[in-house]
Amino acid sequence: MSEVSRYAAAAAVLGGAAGVMAYAVRGRSSSLLAPSVYHGARDRRSIALTFDDGPSESTPDLLNLLEKFGVRATFFQCGANVRRLPSISREVLAAGHEVGNHSDSHPRLYFKNGSFIARELSSAQETIAAITGSAPRFFRAPYGVRWFGLREAQRRLDLLGVMWTTIGVDWKLPVNPVVTRLLQGAGNGAILCLHDGRILEKRPNIRVTLEAVNQIVPKLIDRGFHFETISEILCPTKNSQTE
Questions:
Q1: Is 195 a catalytic residue?
Q2: H/E element holding 138?
Q3: Which residue in 39, 104, 195, 196 is the catalytic one?
Q4: Has this prediction a pTM greater than 0.85?
Protein backbone atom coordinates (compact mmCIF):
# COMPACT_ATOMS: atom_id res chain seq x y z
CA MET A 1 0.00 0.00 0.00
CA SER A 2 1.40 3.40 -0.96
CA GLU A 3 1.78 6.23 1.55
CA VAL A 4 -1.11 8.09 -0.10
CA SER A 5 -3.32 5.00 0.21
CA ARG A 6 -2.43 4.63 3.89
CA TYR A 7 -3.35 8.25 4.57
CA ALA A 8 -6.61 7.80 2.68
CA ALA A 9 -7.46 4.67 4.66
CA ALA A 10 -6.65 6.37 7.95
CA ALA A 11 -8.78 9.38 6.99
CA ALA A 12 -11.69 7.09 6.14
CA VAL A 13 -11.45 5.36 9.52
CA LEU A 14 -11.28 8.69 11.37
CA GLY A 15 -14.17 10.05 9.36
CA GLY A 16 -16.26 7.00 10.16
CA ALA A 17 -15.45 7.28 13.86
CA ALA A 18 -16.38 10.97 13.84
CA GLY A 19 -19.69 10.14 12.20
CA VAL A 20 -20.52 7.50 14.80
CA MET A 21 -19.61 9.91 17.60
CA ALA A 22 -21.77 12.68 16.14
CA TYR A 23 -24.70 10.28 15.91
CA ALA A 24 -24.16 9.06 19.48
CA VAL A 25 -24.15 12.62 20.85
CA ARG A 26 -26.87 14.27 18.76
CA GLY A 27 -28.74 11.60 16.80
CA ARG A 28 -32.41 11.70 17.70
CA SER A 29 -32.70 7.90 17.45
CA SER A 30 -29.42 7.15 19.23
CA SER A 31 -29.31 5.14 22.45
CA LEU A 32 -25.55 4.59 22.33
CA LEU A 33 -24.80 6.85 25.32
CA ALA A 34 -28.06 6.37 27.25
CA PRO A 35 -31.51 4.79 26.77
CA SER A 36 -33.61 7.14 24.66
CA VAL A 37 -36.73 7.28 22.50
CA TYR A 38 -37.92 9.79 19.92
CA HIS A 39 -41.43 8.63 18.99
CA GLY A 40 -44.35 6.67 20.37
CA ALA A 41 -46.49 3.90 18.89
CA ARG A 42 -46.79 4.34 15.11
CA ASP A 43 -50.11 2.49 14.79
CA ARG A 44 -52.18 5.10 16.62
CA ARG A 45 -53.28 8.64 15.66
CA SER A 46 -51.60 10.18 18.69
CA ILE A 47 -49.09 13.00 19.10
CA ALA A 48 -47.19 14.25 22.15
CA LEU A 49 -46.63 17.97 22.52
CA THR A 50 -43.56 18.69 24.65
CA PHE A 51 -42.19 21.97 25.98
CA ASP A 52 -38.65 22.58 27.21
CA ASP A 53 -36.79 25.09 29.41
CA GLY A 54 -39.64 26.11 31.71
CA PRO A 55 -41.24 26.96 33.89
CA SER A 56 -41.21 30.64 32.99
CA GLU A 57 -43.40 33.61 33.67
CA SER A 58 -44.96 32.90 30.26
CA THR A 59 -45.93 29.30 31.04
CA PRO A 60 -49.40 30.22 32.44
CA ASP A 61 -50.32 31.73 29.05
CA LEU A 62 -49.47 28.41 27.43
CA LEU A 63 -51.44 26.50 30.05
CA ASN A 64 -54.50 28.63 29.30
CA LEU A 65 -54.13 27.91 25.59
CA LEU A 66 -53.79 24.16 26.11
CA GLU A 67 -56.84 24.21 28.39
CA LYS A 68 -58.84 25.93 25.66
CA PHE A 69 -58.13 23.01 23.33
CA GLY A 70 -58.42 20.34 26.01
CA VAL A 71 -54.85 19.19 25.34
CA ARG A 72 -52.41 17.66 27.81
CA ALA A 73 -48.68 17.95 27.22
CA THR A 74 -45.31 17.15 28.78
CA PHE A 75 -43.08 19.89 30.17
CA PHE A 76 -39.35 19.23 30.54
CA GLN A 77 -38.35 21.65 33.29
CA CYS A 78 -35.01 23.00 34.49
CA GLY A 79 -34.38 22.70 38.22
CA ALA A 80 -33.16 26.30 38.48
CA ASN A 81 -36.39 27.58 36.91
CA VAL A 82 -38.50 25.39 39.16
CA ARG A 83 -36.81 26.86 42.23
CA ARG A 84 -37.37 30.37 40.87
CA LEU A 85 -41.04 29.79 40.00
CA PRO A 86 -42.27 26.94 42.20
CA SER A 87 -45.94 27.87 42.03
CA ILE A 88 -45.93 27.78 38.22
CA SER A 89 -44.24 24.38 38.23
CA ARG A 90 -47.01 23.09 40.51
CA GLU A 91 -49.60 24.73 38.28
CA VAL A 92 -48.39 22.67 35.32
CA LEU A 93 -49.06 19.41 37.18
CA ALA A 94 -52.32 20.67 38.63
CA ALA A 95 -53.57 21.30 35.09
CA GLY A 96 -53.06 17.61 34.27
CA HIS A 97 -49.80 17.86 32.38
CA GLU A 98 -46.67 15.76 32.87
CA VAL A 99 -43.32 17.12 34.09
CA GLY A 100 -39.95 15.80 32.96
CA ASN A 101 -36.34 16.48 33.94
CA HIS A 102 -34.41 18.91 31.69
CA SER A 103 -31.28 19.18 33.89
CA ASP A 104 -30.71 21.79 36.56
CA SER A 105 -28.99 24.63 34.72
CA HIS A 106 -29.35 23.66 31.04
CA PRO A 107 -25.67 23.06 30.20
CA ARG A 108 -24.29 21.37 27.14
CA LEU A 109 -23.26 17.99 28.49
CA TYR A 110 -20.50 17.18 26.03
CA PHE A 111 -16.97 17.07 27.48
CA LYS A 112 -18.46 17.13 31.00
CA ASN A 113 -17.44 14.40 33.44
CA GLY A 114 -19.82 11.86 34.92
CA SER A 115 -19.99 13.60 38.28
CA PHE A 116 -21.10 16.87 36.69
CA ILE A 117 -23.78 15.12 34.63
CA ALA A 118 -25.03 13.19 37.66
CA ARG A 119 -25.32 16.41 39.70
CA GLU A 120 -27.25 18.17 36.95
CA LEU A 121 -29.81 15.39 36.70
CA SER A 122 -30.10 14.63 40.40
CA SER A 123 -30.41 18.29 41.43
CA ALA A 124 -33.25 18.85 38.96
CA GLN A 125 -34.89 15.57 39.99
CA GLU A 126 -34.76 16.43 43.68
CA THR A 127 -35.99 19.98 43.09
CA ILE A 128 -38.96 18.93 40.96
CA ALA A 129 -39.94 16.13 43.34
CA ALA A 130 -39.69 18.37 46.43
CA ILE A 131 -41.63 21.28 44.94
CA THR A 132 -44.30 19.43 42.98
CA GLY A 133 -44.52 16.18 44.95
CA SER A 134 -43.97 14.18 41.77
CA ALA A 135 -40.62 12.74 40.62
CA PRO A 136 -40.09 12.81 36.84
CA ARG A 137 -39.84 9.57 34.87
CA PHE A 138 -38.36 11.10 31.74
CA PHE A 139 -35.29 13.18 30.89
CA ARG A 140 -34.54 15.39 27.90
CA ALA A 141 -30.94 16.43 27.44
CA PRO A 142 -30.36 20.17 26.94
CA TYR A 143 -29.74 20.89 23.25
CA GLY A 144 -30.35 17.18 22.67
CA VAL A 145 -26.70 16.51 23.59
CA ARG A 146 -25.84 13.19 25.25
CA TRP A 147 -22.41 12.28 26.67
CA PHE A 148 -20.48 9.59 28.50
CA GLY A 149 -21.78 9.22 32.04
CA LEU A 150 -25.39 9.98 31.14
CA ARG A 151 -26.36 6.31 31.03
CA GLU A 152 -25.36 5.80 34.66
CA ALA A 153 -26.99 9.06 35.78
CA GLN A 154 -30.28 8.05 34.15
CA ARG A 155 -30.04 4.55 35.59
CA ARG A 156 -29.61 5.83 39.13
CA LEU A 157 -32.66 8.06 38.83
CA ASP A 158 -34.69 5.57 36.77
CA LEU A 159 -35.08 8.07 33.93
CA LEU A 160 -35.73 7.31 30.27
CA GLY A 161 -34.30 9.76 27.78
CA VAL A 162 -36.76 11.42 25.39
CA MET A 163 -35.69 13.18 22.22
CA TRP A 164 -38.15 14.40 19.59
CA THR A 165 -39.51 13.43 16.22
CA THR A 166 -39.60 17.07 15.12
CA ILE A 167 -38.35 20.22 16.82
CA GLY A 168 -40.02 23.55 16.08
CA VAL A 169 -36.94 25.80 16.53
CA ASP A 170 -39.38 28.24 18.03
CA TRP A 171 -36.67 30.13 19.92
CA LYS A 172 -35.35 31.71 16.70
CA LEU A 173 -37.71 31.09 13.76
CA PRO A 174 -40.84 33.15 12.96
CA VAL A 175 -44.26 31.58 13.43
CA ASN A 176 -44.91 30.35 9.88
CA PRO A 177 -41.73 28.24 9.53
CA VAL A 178 -42.30 26.78 13.00
CA VAL A 179 -45.85 25.78 12.09
CA THR A 180 -44.67 24.31 8.77
CA ARG A 181 -41.96 22.23 10.45
CA LEU A 182 -44.36 20.81 13.02
CA LEU A 183 -47.16 20.02 10.58
CA GLN A 184 -44.73 18.33 8.19
CA GLY A 185 -43.28 16.31 11.06
CA ALA A 186 -46.64 15.25 12.46
CA GLY A 187 -47.47 11.57 12.21
CA ASN A 188 -48.58 8.62 14.28
CA GLY A 189 -46.62 8.60 17.53
CA ALA A 190 -44.80 11.86 16.81
CA ILE A 191 -43.15 13.75 19.66
CA LEU A 192 -43.10 17.48 18.89
CA CYS A 193 -40.69 19.79 20.72
CA LEU A 194 -41.37 23.45 21.54
CA HIS A 195 -40.26 25.73 24.39
CA ASP A 196 -42.18 27.53 27.13
CA GLY A 197 -38.92 29.09 28.35
CA ARG A 198 -35.68 30.33 26.89
CA ILE A 199 -33.04 28.44 28.92
CA LEU A 200 -32.85 30.31 32.28
CA GLU A 201 -34.04 33.68 30.96
CA LYS A 202 -36.48 35.60 33.13
CA ARG A 203 -39.73 36.72 31.54
CA PRO A 204 -38.98 35.27 28.09
CA ASN A 205 -40.99 36.24 25.05
CA ILE A 206 -42.65 33.05 23.81
CA ARG A 207 -45.13 34.71 21.47
CA VAL A 208 -43.98 32.53 18.56
CA THR A 209 -44.52 29.38 20.61
CA LEU A 210 -48.00 30.43 21.68
CA GLU A 211 -49.09 31.33 18.16
CA ALA A 212 -47.62 28.12 16.76
CA VAL A 213 -49.60 26.04 19.27
CA ASN A 214 -52.73 28.06 18.53
CA GLN A 215 -52.38 27.17 14.84
CA ILE A 216 -51.17 23.58 14.85
CA VAL A 217 -53.43 22.04 17.48
CA PRO A 218 -56.76 22.59 15.67
CA LYS A 219 -55.18 21.56 12.36
CA LEU A 220 -53.88 18.32 13.82
CA ILE A 221 -57.21 17.61 15.50
CA ASP A 222 -58.87 18.08 12.09
CA ARG A 223 -56.44 15.47 10.72
CA GLY A 224 -57.73 13.01 13.27
CA PHE A 225 -54.90 13.17 15.82
CA HIS A 226 -55.36 13.30 19.57
CA PHE A 227 -52.79 14.51 22.07
CA GLU A 228 -51.12 12.52 24.82
CA THR A 229 -48.42 12.92 27.43
CA ILE A 230 -45.12 11.09 26.98
CA SER A 231 -46.23 8.41 29.44
CA GLU A 232 -49.36 7.78 27.40
CA ILE A 233 -47.77 7.81 23.97
CA LEU A 234 -45.06 5.36 25.09
CA CYS A 235 -47.49 3.13 27.00
CA PRO A 236 -50.64 3.06 24.85
CA THR A 237 -52.27 0.29 26.91
CA LYS A 238 -52.61 2.82 29.74
CA ASN A 239 -54.59 5.17 27.53
CA SER A 240 -58.33 4.60 27.39
CA GLN A 241 -58.58 5.97 23.84
CA THR A 242 -58.34 3.41 21.05
CA GLU A 243 -57.95 3.78 17.33
A1: yes
A2: strand 138-139
A3: 195
A4: yes
